Amino acid sequence: MSDAQHARGTVGYLMEMGALKRGKRFSWWIAGVKDPETIAEHSFRTAVIGSVFAMMEGADPGRVALLCTFHDTQETRVGDIPWIGRRYLTAAKNEDVTRDQVADAHPKVAAGIQAVVDEYETGDSIEVLVAHDADKLECMIQGLEYLEQGYRNAREWVDSTRAKLKTPSAIALADAAQNMSSVEWQRTYLR
């Protein structure tokens, strides 16, 4: 492939990632949320949460943010399959979807993105553990925000994701989140 073809393939991947800004998180529809967050919104806050966790746990914040940023990028092709849907569907592994997504990208880009996704899916480092907890905590916090908006069915997501947290920092932040409103942070600036 020529440099121009690799550039075009890389831009194609970047444009595909833009679809994450439009793709809604399907599970929240099951909870009755009329206009749920997008996959990109989820991934952004997951990366921020992951960076914070990494600092608390002594892991590499940049590495965790990278893992979190790419953890759901495959959903441009397979969608956000809810847990109940996984009972009936067999989706390709995220590593395989990523391989197809970056097939025409610059070789260094393809190898780099593939390595990040492979690490997130199969790694066992502290960074991977923190990234997985960040994904769960983001879901829990989003659920708490939906509860405040009157979506009572979000309680199931809050409780089930809270129960899956593993790191001490994630558990401590989850406990704090359950005792704080989503806009309480504003009080700091109103003093």
Automatic annotation (TrEMBL):
Its cofactor is Co(2+); Mn(2+). One of its GO terms (cellular component) is cytoplasm. Residues 35-149 form the HD/PDEase domain. It catalyses: a 2'-deoxyribonucleoside 5'-phosphate + H2O = a 2'-deoxyribonucleoside + phosphate. Its EC number is 3.1.3.89. Keywords: Hydrolase, Metal-binding. The keyword Cell wall biogenesis/degradation does not apply. Pfam families: HD_3. The keyword Hydrolase applies. GO terms for molecular function: 5'-deoxynucleotidase activity; metal ion binding. Homodimer. This is 5'-deoxynucleotidase. It comes from Streptomyces cacaoi.
